[in-house]
């Protein structure tokens, strides 16, 4: 593999670097000027991938932290922090947008960049932590002190590979590897290829990486455990799902066996509705989708709720005797979402066998007999059994009733929308959905397609 | 309940008793005469329900045992025993038929009765047992010594009730209660009603009845344990299945709640092919039958083999993803048999999800990937998964192939016949089967129908 070629494409050029550095300096100077003028005891600090020099060309998210003394009351921190952000954005002619993480913060859209202004506490070590964002200062410092120039290139390769195979990002939607986790993996294994080799050969569920030898790994029950060098009580990989860990390992093995530049870029898919219809027909399975309008929500709110709803419906379907082969969810992140289910069993008899108690649990036995009538009860080994009419023996009508039943666990922000869903089979559904979801559907039908090139 | 009324119908009248007693005396005298003449050291003994006075009117099976001294070699016992039987049958103008249990024996069809002549060893107690038949002498003696006239009536009621609800008989086809077991239950509980009450209220799997307090119950792992008063190492109820034990208890509870004379007689069913077709259609399930010719076999050979074949096919069906709701088997006990399956799931997609190894079991992982190709493999949590074409996605074609595959466990005497079966759906099947199987089919569709009136 000629990694040089890839680095040429993903490593920020001198001009990009200078432009960003200049912008950052201007913003920080501005903040500090305002702070001084208003007598706010803050010195703005650049953090994140820009500060660490590990951002992918064209993808610089500028994070400017506003560390307040530990003695500042939370109200004051929030108020003055947001004020500083807004003032700075105003001064450089950007557009402000308030957001919420552990604290509220301001994002400025400035000269084509997204710049986050985040109030935080000025902590020296993890013992002084007030909230998760405070840790970022320590992370930035740790990487700046430990990651040399050569390894920064390796970080870029790892991040870009992760992007290509869809395992990059610790947000809920992905459940993959964060940027900081990529940096630590390079610190620990020295190079991109070494990370892939170690993952391929050594990783298994519960694998531990403890760079500073804190010995605190037994606290964690996660697929991968990477003890934070700046906080022995935190697993940097806590957001990584078993699914994404395995996907990374499988893609790594595929890559090592036959390295190709294509792995560093998203898999190319051409999809049309006609082609998807043909593909589904050939499988001889049944696909049913639950489609609904929903309000605009932050991605980290929206996706967990979609997932929760999907899982709850799936659980009910399987319990009823319909068998779900695979399921998934999608949203345009604006106003339209759907859940999708592929079935191994989508039609059932008009009655179901209902198992009652063991014959010797007399109270339940007699209650069962009274409820169903002795003429509808029989015996299988030591249990009584009865026949029960099944109201919905086709999966679509079952789902329709389920959605109205109040039995499923639905995320609270989408609850009232999901109950008004349309339930469609594969043909109706493919005619209905927007084109932007076709790539998702192709991947839903071919769930390993992004793991090889 | 007026049990008197029932007893009037089921208790042998004086004339029936005298006729049987006279016949038995004639047969025994004949045997003893021949034995004396031929110098065979045997004194014929009447055993079984006739000897114990517990036979149901019109159902006297006469059992005449021929006890040889313990020193007799087995060959000689067999040869001389059969000889005595044949000679006796010849003398009274009956028709002989040789049969096999633990030893060979002769059945004579004499004056409308079936009379078994069974050679055995003359044992004094269970320690001297050579084979299971020898025990019968001890059973007969024990019941004769312990069961008084009043209790004989109770035995008749219990046997007749068991017949009515289809739990009477310890042969494999039934798996129910033997006559001797009924007698012991009456000895233990005193009356028919007490047996029903005890079963209803106290019995549960592993319930122990140990009349002679031998304390040997822990040897047994059966649904019901009744230690044989004449042999502490035997469970008289060992042939009783959990199924029949529970059926008896359920029917007993139904009877006690609303006693009716009808419980003592088989449930009356009117069945027609048209009615069965309608009933099946209403269920919305699918029924498939495997029909085959088979040779005439003893019932205790035939039924276990049918059952074994049924269970093996069912296991494969469920493993493949077809879901069997209920299954059964039937034979005319001459030359035609069938296995029958009702399905909750009878159709599957054209592909199946095939779970491979966990990702860290590397040898299996790479074998799996080579076998299916990385383009057909994906990841679910920590496992690799692939898609596999399903050759038979309809249940009939799956069964047809399964029957030819050699994968199912089939009873050896019916193996070559089962492999040439016809596989039919409910409509074809109902047009094809003989009328005598319709009652079985009605019960197959309504498996509790014999447990209440």
Automatic annotation (TrEMBL), chains A, B:
**Entry's family note:** Belongs to the tRNA nucleotidyltransferase/poly(A) polymerase family. Archaeal CCA-adding enzyme subfamily.
The record places domain Polymerase nucleotidyl transferase at: 29-138
One GO biological process term is: tRNA 3'-terminal CCA addition
Q: Which InterPro entries match?
A: CAA_C, CCA-adding_arc, CCA_tRNA_nucleotrans_2, NT_2-5OAS_ClassI-CCAase, NT_sf, NuclTrfase_I-like_C, Polymerase_NTP_transf_dom, tRNA_NucTransf2
Specify the protein name: CCA-adding enzyme
All copies of domain CCA-adding enzyme C-terminal, residue ranges: 283-422
What's the Enzyme Commission number for this chain? 2.7.7.72
Q: Which cofactor does it need?
A: Mg(2+)
Binding-site residues for Mg(2+), renumbered to this chain: 61, 63, 116
Question: Which key words tag this protein in UniProt?
Answer: ATP-binding, Magnesium, Metal-binding, Nucleotide-binding, Nucleotidyltransferase, RNA repair, RNA-binding, Transferase, tRNA processing
Any transmembrane segments, and where?
A: none
The entry's ATP-binding residues are: 49, 52, 139, 159, 168
MF term (GO), any: tRNA binding
List, for all copies, the residue spans of the domain called tRNA nucleotidyltransferase substrate binding.
153-265
């Amino acid at each position: 593999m000629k990694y040089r070629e890839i680095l040429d494409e993903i490593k920020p050029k001198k001009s990009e670097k200078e432009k960003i550095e200049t912008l950052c300096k201007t913003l920080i100077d501005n903040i500090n000027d305002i702070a001084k003028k208003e007598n706010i005891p803050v010195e703005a600090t650049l953090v994140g991938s820009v500060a660490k020099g590990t951002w992918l060309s064209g993808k610089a998210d500028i994070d400017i932290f506003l560390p307040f003394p530990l003695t500042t009351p939370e109200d004051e921190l929030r108020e003055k922090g947001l004020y500083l952000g807004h003032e700075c954005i105003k001064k450089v002619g950007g557009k402000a947008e308030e957001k919420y993480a552990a604290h509220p913060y301001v994002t400025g859209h400035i000269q084509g960049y997204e710049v986050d202004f985040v109030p935080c506490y000025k902590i020296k070590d993890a013992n002084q932590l007030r909230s998760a964002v405070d840790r970022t200062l320590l992370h930035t410092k740790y990487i700046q002190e430990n990651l040399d120039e050569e390894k920064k290139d390796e970080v870029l390769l790892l991040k870009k590979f992760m992007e290509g195979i869809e395992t990059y990002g610790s947000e809920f939607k992905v459940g993959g590897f964060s940027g900081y986790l990529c940096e630590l993996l390079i610190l620990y294994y020295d190079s991109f290829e070494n990370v892939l080799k170690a993952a391929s050969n050594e990783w298994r569920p519960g694998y531990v990486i403890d760079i500073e030898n804190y010995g605190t790994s037994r606290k964690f029950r996660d697929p991968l455990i990477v003890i934070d060098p700046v906080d022995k009580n935190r697993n940097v990989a806590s957001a990584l799902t078993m699914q994404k860990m395995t996907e990374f390992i499988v893609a790594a093995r595929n890559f090592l066996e036959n390295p190709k530049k294509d792995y560093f870029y998203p898999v190319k898919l051409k999809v049309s509705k006609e082609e998807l219809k043909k593909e589904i027909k050939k499988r001889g399975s049944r696909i049913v989708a639950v489609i609904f309008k929903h309000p605009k929500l932050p991605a980290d709110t929206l996706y967990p709720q979609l997932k929760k709803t999907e899982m709850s419906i799936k659980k009910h379907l399987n319990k009823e005797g319909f068998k779900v082969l695979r399921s998934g969810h999608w949203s345009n992140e604006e106003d339209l979402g759907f859940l999708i289910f592929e079935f191994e069993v989508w039609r059932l008899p008009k009655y179901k066998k209902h198992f009652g108690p063991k014959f010797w649990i007399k109270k339940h036995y007699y209650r069962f007999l009274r409820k169903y009538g002795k003429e509808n009860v029989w015996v299988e080994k030591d249990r009584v059994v009865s026949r029960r009419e099944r109201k919905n023996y086709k999966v679509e009508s079952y789902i329709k009733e389920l959605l109205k039943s109040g039995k499923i666990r639905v995320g609270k922000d989408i609850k009232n929308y999901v109950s008004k869903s349309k339930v469609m089979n594969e043909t109706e559904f493919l005619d209905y959905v927007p084109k932007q979801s076709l790539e998702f559907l192709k991947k839903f039908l071919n769930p390993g397609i992004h793991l090889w090139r």
